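Notes taken during the Thursday session

The instructor put the following on the board and asked us to keep it in front of us for the whole hour. The protein is DUF1206 domain-containing protein. We were told not to look anything up and to reason only from what is written here. First, the residues (272 in total):
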Amino acid sequence: MTHHQAKQTVDRVTDSPWFERAARAGYLVTGLLHLLIAYIVMRIAFGGGGSADQSGALAVFAGEPGGQVVLWVAAVAFAALALWRLAEAILGGKANDPDSSDGGLSEWFDRGKALALFVLYLGLAWSAINFATGGGQSSGQQNAGMSARLMQHTGGKVVLVIVGLIVIGVGAYFIYKGVTKNFLDDLRRGGGTAVTTTGVIGYTAKGAVIAGAGILVIVAALRADPSKAAGIDAAIKTLAGLPAGQILLILAAVGLAAYGVYCFVMSRWARM
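Then, after some discussion, the predicted structure tokens were revealed:
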């Protein structure tokens, strides 16, 4: 199959309204996960426990009556959104918005971003399936275990530093997108004051947390301390140990909750 034929096939598949609805449901579930993460962060701020990341939020579902059904629905929604992102990577722009591709360097940036999001949402779908079948694990523990194995070799430490720099770059991109309000370009209609404020707070806070996780990965590699390379959960719990930790955690919880609310907006108005 040629590249042109592949694009034609993707065009036909993404014309399905059911596929688009399923992909939009992925934003709904993402928003709900961020609200749960925000709740866990708030609990930590007041002395509670929990894993402040996606695995911790999925574990909340697993422990509730009917949680398995919710997790399977989440897995399908995440998988649909992952496949939609893959379609965008193939097309070089929004699947149902041909004007979103300009054929320049920005198109290749969009392809790379879509491919990265494909991997992210596919991973979330897999995690949801694992929790639904009783085999879910903390992503923080998995990250720490993988980091410990990499730290046994000099080359592995270099890999961790590179990963940390990439994660910091992702966090910086989120902050940039929030401060400049570029996230409004992702919507089919202009955002009002409430939507804009939610997006600015949400993207900036999420970016700061992601960047903090990246910094900890580098610190973990330099100090040979795998516990620091446990992702967002480690970043949140590091905040808890700072002098103004409780205030910072409350701000982080509010910001992550705002990002969750913005995901609900995306489920309705995102350019697909």
